Amino acid sequence: MNRPAPDTTSDVVVVGGGAAGLSLALRLTAPGSPTVTLVEAPDGPLRPPERTWCYWDQAARGPHDAEYTADFEEAVTASWSRLRVHGRDGDAITVDPAPLRYRMVRSADFERLAHARLDRTPGVRVLRATADTVRNSADGTAEVRCTTPDGDTRLLRARHVFDSRPRRVLPPARTRLAQHFRGWFVRTDGSRFDPSVADLMDFRVPQPPHGLAFGYVLPLAPDRALVEYTEFSRTPLTTDAYETALAQYTHDVLKLGAFTVEAAEQGVIPMTDARFARRVGPAVHRIGTAGGATRPATGYTFAAVQRQSRAIAEALHRGRVLVPPAHGRRALAMDAVLLRALDTGRIDGPDFFTGLFRRVPPHRLLRFLDGETAPWEDWGIGLRTPVGPMLRTALELPFLPRRPHGTPRTGEGHR
C-alpha cells in the first residue's frame, strides 16, 4: 500500500470535537498560539448525541481567561444559586454555595460557540474526518491518519497530538463502578419547578441491591426541567428500566401531573481508580476523560477539562509540552477509598452524601468535590464521614490487585 503524502502539517493536532478537544482548541486561539488542526468525527455513529455538562463556575484567572469566560457565558443554558439534596426520609437540605453557582451547558450550544471562534482564527483548521490511527513518528513528531466522509485518506503531521477519543478498554483498576443515567427534558402543564434551586441528589427513589440511586432535577423554567434517574453501580440498565424508573420518579415522587417529554439523554460515566496515562509517546498525549479528567467519585469532568486545557495552552505558549493530571494525588486517593467503600457496601451511599451536605459548609464541600481544598480542610471533611469503614477501606487498598477491565470479581462481598 502506498503511503499518502502529508495533507496538512500543523504545530498541534487535536483529535476529537467533544468538550476536551474543543476546549483545548479554544485555548489555542490566543495571539501567538501554535497552528492547530482539529479533527472532528463526521455526522454518524461516531458522533455522540447532544448531551449536558454541568460544573461550578470559577473566577477568571488572567486577561485571556477573562475574555474566554465572557464568551463562554453565551453557552450556559441555565444556572442555579441554591442546591438541594433530599434524604431517603424526604428531609430536604438546601444550601447556598455563594459565590459559586451551578451551571449547565448543552453540548450543541458549546459547539456552536466554539466553532464561531475557531472559524475566525486564522491559525486553526477544522477537519471533519474519522481518525483511524494516531502514532508517534521516528523523527519525534506524530501522524494522524484520517478518512473523510467521501472515503479519501488524509495524513496529518504535527509536532504534538492531543487525543481526546474515548478509550476502548479502561486501564486495570481495583474498583470499577459506573455512573449511568437517563434524563427527560420535560414540559409540565403548570408551574412545578423552582428555577432558582437545582436538586443534585434526590434519594427518594428505590435503592438498588448494590450501589445507590437518585433523582436529579435541573429546572429551566417554572414548567420546564431536565429530570434524570441516576445510579452508581457496576452495570448499566436497559433503556426500558430507566424509563420505568423515570416514570415512577416523576409520578410518585415529584408528582408533576401531566407533562410531555421534549427530548431525552442517556449515558455512562466511568467511576474507577484506574491510572490513566496521559503520555502515549514523545509527541502523542491523551486529554479529557481518556486522560483521566473524570473525577472518579462524582463523574464531574467539565471543570477539570477547563483546568487541563488552560495548563496545556499556557505551556505551549512558553514552548513546552505539559499535560498535567486533572486531579491531584490526594483527591484521587480519597476517591479510591470512597469507591471501594461504596462497592463493598461498607457505607450507605444515600446517608453518606446527605451527611456531607448536612455537616460541611456548602462552599467548602463544592471545592472539595472539585479537588481544590487544602489538606486541613480534607481532614475536617473526612472526620464527618463514617470513620471506621473508611479507615478500614484505606488500610486494605494498598494490598488489592489492579485487575484488567473485564476480569471477573471473586471474593468481594457486601460487607
Summarize this entry quickly.
Helices cover about 30% and strands about 30% of the residues. With about 425 residues, the chain is α/β, with parallel strands linked by helices.
Describe what this molecule looks like in 3D.
With 415 residues, the chain is of the alpha/beta class. It folds into three domains: 8-82 and 99-170 and 275-317, FAD/NAD(P)-binding domain; 176-272, D-Amino Acid Oxidase, Chain A, domain 2; 329-399. It is 28% helix and 29% strand. The protein has ten helices and 17 strands. The protein has helices spanning 19-27, 63-72, 107-119, 239-253, 302-317, 329-344, 349-359, 362-369, 375-382, 387-396, and strands spanning 8-15, 36-40, 52-56, 76-80, 82-86, 92-95, 102-106, 124-128, 130-136, 142-147, 153-163, 176-188, 197-202, 212-221, 224-233, 259-272, 284-286. Helix 1 (19-27) packs parallel to helix 3, helix 1 packs parallel to helix 5 (302-317) and helix 6 (329-344) crosses helix 10 (387-396). The radius of gyration is 22 Å and the shape is globular. Mean pLDDT is 89; it is low at 1-5, 59-70 and 407-415.
Number of strands: 17
- Provide the number of structural domains: 3
The helix/strand series, from N terminus to C terminus, equals EHEEHEEEEHEEEEEEEEHEEHHHHHH
**CATH classification, class level of the largest domain:** Alpha Beta
CATH homologous superfamily heading of the largest domain: FAD/NAD(P)-binding domain
Q: What is the rounded distance between the termini? A: 58 Å
CATH architecture of the largest domain: 3-Layer(bba) Sandwich
The largest β sheet comes out as:
7 strands, mixed
CATH fold-type name of the largest domain: FAD/NAD(P)-binding domain
